Amino acid sequence: MRQKISLHTIIYLLSIGLLFVSTTAWAQQVWGPDDQRGAANYITKAKVVESARLITEGKIYELGHTYEESMPKGGRTFKLSIIGSGPGDPPHNPVYNVDFYAGDLGQIGTQFDAFGHVGFRHDGPMENDEFYNGFKGSEVYSSTGLKKLGVENARPFFTRGLLIDVADYKGIERLEPGYEITIEDLQGSLGKQGVTIQEGDVVLIRTGHSQLWDVDGDAYYDWTAEPGLGVIAATWLADQKVVIIGSDNFGIEVIPFSKGTSTWPVHVLCLKDRGVHLLESMNLEGLHKDSVFEFAFMFSPLPIKGGTGSPGNPIAIK
């Protein structure tokens, strides 16, 4: 469902000059030409200490889905085999089990996108592809793991988290597939919840789409239509200096993609241009049920050297 651009949004777009702002020079000026951390640099020691003070009840919310072969996979692979032990060794006869896993490790289930996951190809060979902070394809690509911008550079996150419950703001259980979340939706949700975004925050967008996770995997992973962020709203979030944008859908952004853009424009904007990580396929229903909008957020991606992303179980602590 396409939304009309409001006067407020038009003024905002004029204020930033262009819909897509090339921020390669900006990233180099702020954090240097070798930086691979991006917006995570906004999480200072003071921010960590301040975020810890948000823990007042000690309640933990798991924000990841269980990894299992029956989960929605969107055409990707998850296969877990258990290799059992033979007869136990005397005198105590212990037995053991060992896992063998085959599948898409960093891009399945609840998943964290590293900066090397998405870049942009201009005219020319793949060696000239552009990634975060101006790294070229020749500096990034390798068949045995990314040479630059692998997920091991992300390191652990502990900061303030915010739930932006857009579905609740709209008064519905689940946004319609194809619904593009606007700046007005984000600001309206924040206003209703009585919270504001601060530098170094993680923002989690609830669309209600994850209610399909255990019900209809095909509908959840419908590559033709899902509700999600439009590129204008994502630009606004990046301008607030957030470090991660997460959502309860599989791709963060609206599908069909924002009108007048290329494919996966929010991924290009966040991962390449602005150094903002993405967390996909989250379970935000517990936070929604308890109306928890502000919390301490913790996530540590698996340090897979050269990986394009990481599975995991982010947590919110209230």
What are the salient characteristics of this protein?
single chain, 318 residues, alpha/beta, Glucose Oxidase, domain 1, two-stranded antiparallel sheet, 10 helices
Can you describe this structure in just a few lines?
This protein has 318 residues and is of the alpha/beta class. It is built from 10 helices and 13 strands. The chain has helices spanning 7-16, 24-31, 45-52, 137-140, 166-170, 183-193, 217-220, 231-239, 265-274, 285-289, and strands at 60-62, 78-84, 97-103, 111-113, 157-165, 180-181, 202-206, 228-229, 244-247, 277-280, 294-299, 309-311, 315-317.
Write the layout of secondary structure elements.
Blueprint (H helix, E strand, L loop, with lengths): L6 H10 L7 H8 L13 H8 L7 E3 L15 E7 L12 E7 L7 E3 L23 H4 L16 E9 H5 L9 E2 L1 H11 L8 E5 L10 H4 L7 E2 L1 H9 L4 E4 L17 H10 L2 E4 L4 H5 L4 E6 L9 E3 L3 E3 L1
Parallel strand pairs: 5-7, 6-8, 7-9, 9-10
Antiparallel strand pairs: 1-13, 2-3, 4-10, 4-12, 5-11, 11-13
CATH architectural grouping: 3-Layer(bba) Sandwich
Report the uncertain regions.
18-22
Strand share of the residues? 15-25%
Task: For the record, give the distance between the C-alpha atoms at the N and C termini, rounded to a whole number.
Answer: 34 Å
Number of beta strands: 13
CATH class: Alpha Beta
Share of helix, binned:
10-25%
Mean pLDDT: 92
Number of domains: 1
- The number of helical runs is 10
